[in-house]
Amino acid sequence: MATITAQMVNSLRERTGVGMLKCKEALTASDGDVEKAVEYLRKQGAAVAAKRADKDAKEGSVFVGSTESKVFAFELTSETDFVSKSDDFGKLGADIAEAIKANNASSIEDVLKLPVGSLTVASRIEEVLAKIGEKIEIRKLAVLPIGENEAVYSYAHLGGKIGSVVKLAFEGNPNGGKEAVQAVAKIITLHVTASNPVALDEGGLLPELVAKEKDIAKEQVINEGKTKPEFIERAIEGRVKKALKQFCLLDQEFYTDSKKTVRNVLAEKQKELGLSKLEVVRFIRFEKGK
Predict the structure, then answer these.
(1) In the predicted model, what is the mean pLDDT of the chain?
(2) Are 127 and 42 spatial neighbours (Cβ–Cβ below 8 Å)?
(3) Which of 129, 99, 101 is nearest to 112 (CA)?
(4) Confidence class for position 208, pLDDT limits 50, 70, 90
(5) What pLDDT does 17 receive?
(6) For residue 205, what are the contacts with CB-CB under 8 A and spacing of at least 6?
(7) What are the pLDDT digits (tens) for 140-151?
(8) What are phi and psi of 279, to 5 degrees?
(9) What domains does the chain contain, in order, with CATH numbers?
(10) Which residues of 39-74 are buried (b: 16+ CB within 10 A; e: fewer)?
């Protein structure tokens, strides 16, 4: 059995950031082999994750990024705000983002297998777990390919509290080039961040949401004392249509000009850029803990 010295313990602590007692435990279990001790601590990270599997991880941050061929967003969660603001957490998020940029992945399972140096993303998460002792996981992910006649913009708001992505498709040769279309994608992304749409248009809304708004409108009309069935139906239909607009991106009032809808803004930009088509084909809005 190798003698575990204070210098060995301190060296492992500096390398991993894990506490002295845990480092000594790892070195003892590994008979003084530093590499095996590091592996031991990583495995302990997995054990920590298992113990904390039932804990709520509602803090964290949303990370966004893009390359010439894709744009992505993911939510990395932690149990406490203290951890989500730490350098270790931020570095982990940046490492995952770089792994997504450099490799193909379309699901969280894919991302966990991606390489980060000599480790995988899953192993990097375990490594940080071993150091901080808190549950960390990738909770949401979206990766969108970028086509030839498409422009995107990604934006992280309030230090990653919200992350938004918008992808536009266009036809024609835009005045100002593709950069001008990307500028439009930017203002729509800022709108998505501020206004929190649920779907592109009414066709994308969940039936449960539509049914809920109908029930609310019906109660409002009845409580106002309206009794004629034909009037009630017309009143409900009008109120539901108005209520649903707040959930639909294209029908929302534009965040910097309430006299225009997003649909109006896109039409104006399409004309201004000399395009035959300019439309939102996809948007993403991730908010931490939701």
Answers:
(1) 92
(2) yes
(3) 99
(4) very high
(5) 81
(6) 198, 199, 244, 247, 248
(7) 999 999 999 999
(8) -145, 155
(9) 6-51 (1.10.8.10), 54-145 (3.30.479.20)
(10) ebbbebbbebbeebeeeebebbbbbbbbeeebbbbb
Strand partners, 77: 60, 137
Distance CA 171, CA 266 (A): 13
- The residue count for the chain: 290
72 and 160 Cβ atoms separated by less than 8 Å: no
Low-confidence winner among 41-45, 94-98, 160-164, 198-202 (lowest mean pLDDT): 41-45
Taking the model in full, what pTM does it have? 0.82
Q: Which residues contact 80 (CB under 8 A, 6 or more apart)?
A: 59, 134
pLDDT digits (tens, 9 = 90+) for 238-262: 999 999 999 999 999 999 999 999 9
Tell me the C-alpha distance between 72 and 91, whole Å.
Answer: 18
Tokens of 69: 């061929």
CB 275 within 8 A of CB 178: no
